[in-house]
Amino acid sequence: RKNWTEALEYYQDFSEIHLNLGNLLKDYGLPVEAKMHYFKAIDLNPEDFLSHYNLGLLYCQQKDFPSAFTE
């Protein structure tokens, strides 16, 4: 987690860092923080299917199926 957080200090507008940090936070059981990074990744790169996919998976884990379906 520390490495991705440090990377954000230098590359705040790099969507892949937000995606990877979101994945890590999701795995740590921090869905609110993970969602924030997925949203930022999508905001920076709306065409990135992996950010949408992982956000959809997170919604499924939270049993928010309508939101998952729209991702």
Keywords:
71 residues, mainly alpha, 77% helix
Structure description:
By secondary structure, this protein is mainly alpha-helical. Helices cover 77% and strands 0% of the residues. It has five helices and no strands. The longest helix is centred in the middle third of the chain and has 14 residues. It starts with a helix and ends with a helix. The mean pLDDT is 90.
In total, the number of strands is: 0
Strand content: under 5%
The residue-averaged pLDDT reads: 90
Unreliable parts: none
Assembly status:
single chain
Continuous helix count = 5
Q: Gap between N and C termini, in Å?
A: 25 Å
| Helix amount | over 70%
SSE topology string: HHHHH
Rg of Cα set = 12 Å
Class from helix and strand fractions: mainly alpha
* Molecular shape: flat
Largest sheet: none
Topology:
Blueprint: H1 2-10, H2 15-27, H3 31-44, H4 49-61, H5 65-70
Helix pairs in contact: 1-2, 2-3, 2-4, 3-4
Short note summarizing the structure:
The protein has helices at residues 2-10, 15-27, 31-44, 49-61, 65-70. It is mostly helical and 71 residues long.
